[in-house]
């Protein structure tokens, strides 16, 4: 049977379950500090989308600037309550699927100047899901191993700037 454990460190607590660290949260110091993780409140907010606009910690419900921009665009062409409902559905999708994939889908929509809606995000999500992320597209230049032969022979090694 697995049990959950919380380790408290000076700078952060960690939540462990089944020998896996599920979450590491930075410790907030001082008064009036808060950190709301949308994954913890999204189910409640989806049931009451009208509460989103006046939610005290609403700024914490925008994981990136693209999410904020998406909400602003939705407010631009939908009624406030409808815009909140659509945005919360997008946020729930990010919590259930992948925040990174939804963020990349929004980037694609913005780059193509397509309107933001739940449907267009879903369509783009399937396209983005198969594409490599930017971290996977890193190119590393080949290494000239002959430089190491020079070290073994005792000859002078060329400067890195000239290689």
Give a verbal description of the structure.
- With 163 residues, the protein is mainly alpha-helical.
- The protein has two domains: 1-33, no CATH class; 35-152, no CATH class.
- It contains six helices and three strands.
- A three-stranded antiparallel beta sheet has the order 1-2-3, with no helix packed on it.
- α2 (65-77) runs antiparallel to α3, α3 packs across α4 and α4 (99-111) crosses α5.
- The termini are far apart.
- The mean pLDDT is 84.
Largest sheet: 3 strands, antiparallel
Please give the number of β-strands.
3
Q: What's the SSE pattern?
A: EEEHHHHHH
What amount of the residues lies in strands?
5-15%
End-to-end separation in angstroms reads 57 Å
Number of self-contained structural domains: 2
Show unreliable segments.
none
Helix percentage range: 40-55%
């Amino acid at each position: 049977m697995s049990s959950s454990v919380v380790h408290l460190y000076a700078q952060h607590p960690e939540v462990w379950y089944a020998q896996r660290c599920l979450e590491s949260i930075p410790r907030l110091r001082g008064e009036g500090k808060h950190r709301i993780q949308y994954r913890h409140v999204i189910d409640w907010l989806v049931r009451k989308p009208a509460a989103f606009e006046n939610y005290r910690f609403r700024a914490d419900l925008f994981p990136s600037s693209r999410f904020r921009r998406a909400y602003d665009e939705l407010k631009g062409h939908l009624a406030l309550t409808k815009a909140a409902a659509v945005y919360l559905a997008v946020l729930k999708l990010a919590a259930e699927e992948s925040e990174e994939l939804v963020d990349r889908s929004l980037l694609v929509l913005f780059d193509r100047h397509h309107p933001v809606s739940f449907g267009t995000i879903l369509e783009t999500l399937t396209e983005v899901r198969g594409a490599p992320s930017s971290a996977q597209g890193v190119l590393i230049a080949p290494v000239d191993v002959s430089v190491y032969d020079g070290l073994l022979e005792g000859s002078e090694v060329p400067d890195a700037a000239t290689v």
